[in-house]
Amino acid sequence: MERALLRLPRAFKEQLANIVVVVEDWPDDETLEEMEIEPPDTLYGLYRGVDLTHRDSTYGNVLPDTVTIYQGPIEEDCETEEEMAEVIRDTVVHEIGHYFGLDDETMHRIEDGEA
Fold this sequence. Notes:
about 120 residues; three-stranded mixed sheet; 6 helices
């Protein structure tokens, strides 16, 4: 996960503020229900916070936004360390995209090379 963060373009890294990235074993049932995810689908990562497009002059004195990477689903779905590294990188980039205000639809278009 740290490698994925280090590989972010400098222009993006310089704009990151009041955000933490954490690793948890698995998403809890409440999170899966909230995100409307049911097996066999899974959740690799999640962004929670106030994205940059919604921050204004009243934004301040708040806990950091959080990007959570879920280790269990990634390890379960990946066969090699290389595949795991790629999934982690893609997940970190996807969740950081939400921090910048991009929605899932836009992120999927970008990831598919359509944007």
